[in-house]
Write a structure and sequence with these properties.
about 350 residues; alpha/beta; 7-stranded mixed sheet; about 15% strand
């Protein structure tokens, strides 16, 4: 295994992890440990290039700094990525990557993300103690997806209250892009609340199954960005909201589970200019890391801690929307400013 430390002015530590003999190339990015050890998931997907994988790790780790701070967690931001098709991952790759995590000596804690499962986390745990989201153990938090989806669902209700005057989702139409673990759980919450669903995913079989289950409409993975709906819930990859896609949106609000939904910092203002209310993703989707934090921090009463923190997230989002309306600006700008203030105060 070769571990190379990469220089970057924006992050505290970035490692390239490589072992050609087992087909492993990945990155670990620690953005900030100002509030505590960096925490963020490990994802595996077939990136087009190393540059694309590194860019994703850098963006995601910065997003985790903001997510953890906004959720009131004593954790910094980090993220790890492995290049490749998750369906072909091997034990050797995961165990080697776990040993790379150990070299950071606790500055980074990993957990489940795209392409990973609680059983994968259990395998990592045989080589490193800096892993959470385990299926069993004294403080095991398991699959974070249901808690992530619950937080997004509650955030969608807050978004609806500010955009439509009521948090009632019955007969509201929600377009959900991405039907992985989080997206699927979110659909269940929304369906039970009476929402009408429009579903999209690159997995056509998955779309058909859930459309039948929830009596939902369907759209192509890209077409979902243009369908008419009340709320768009992106739950797949990030950077999907850009100048081109925002111009085509036919919704009143955006609130979903994908990380780093805005392609650039200017895209929040673009949504605001179109009158589309945007729930900052690093606030709305914090449920998963809150669940993971109970394990990292060895919280005894996990359920109570999760409930408390999720309620705080809802309150925070409510305040962000209220301030943004008063200032006539994007909620994204307000949310970033709030976290920047928190990090500045901590540094001082």
């Amino acid at each position: 295994m070769q571990i190379t430390r990469l220089a970057t002015p924006t992050h505290e530590t970035v490692l390239r992890v490589h072992d050609a003999s087992i087909g492993l190339t990945g990155f670990i990015a620690v953005h900030s440990t100002k509030l505590g050890p960096a925490a963020g998931g490990l994802r595996m997907r077939p990136y087009d290039s190393e540059d694309a994988a590194l860019t994703d790790a850098l963006r995601l780790s910065e997003g985790m700094t903001y997510k953890n701070a906004a959720a009131g967690l004593p954790l910094g931001g980090g993220k790890a990525v492995i290049m490749g098709d998750a369906s072909t991952k091997t034990s050797a790759q995961l165990l080697t990557f776990a040993r790379a995590i150990n070299t950071l000596e606790g500055d980074y804690w990993t957990a489940e993300d795209m392409g990973m499962s609680p059983s994968d986390m259990a395998l990592l745990a045989t080589e490193t103690k800096f892993v959470a989201g385990l299926p069993d153990g004294p403080h095991a938090s398991g699959d974070p997806s249901p808690i992530t989806a619950r937080g997004i669902f509650e955030s969608i209700k807050v978004t609806a209250k500010h955009r439509f005057g009521s948090a009632d989702l019955s007969d509201r139409t929600v377009a959900v892009q991405g039907l992985g673990h989080v997206g699927t759980y979110l659909c269940d919450f929304l369906h039970k609340a009476g929402a009408k669903l429009i579903l999209a995913d690159i997995n056509a079989k998955r779309v058909a199954e859930l459309a039948a289950k929830y009596n939902a409409q369907t759209a192509g993975a890209d077409d979902i960005l243009t369908v008419k709906a009340d709320i768009f819930a992106p739950c797949a990859i990030g950077a999907i909201l850009n100048a081109d896609s925002i111009a085509k949106l036919n919704v009143a609000a955006v609130c979903g589970g994908a990380n780093n939904q805005l392609a650039t910092s200017e895209d929040g203002a673009r949504l605001h200019a179109r009158g589309i209310l945007y729930a900052p993703d690093f606030v709305a989707n914090a449920g998963g890391i809150i669940n993971v934090a109970t394990e990292v921090l060895a919280i005894d009463n996990r359920a109570a801690y999760v409930d408390e923190k999720l309620n705080a997230v809802v309150d925070t989002l409510d305040r962000i929307f209220t301030r943004a309306k008063t200032m006539d600006c994007s909620p994204a700008d307000v949310a970033v400013a709030i976290v920047d203030e928190m990090l500045s105060d901590k540094a001082a």
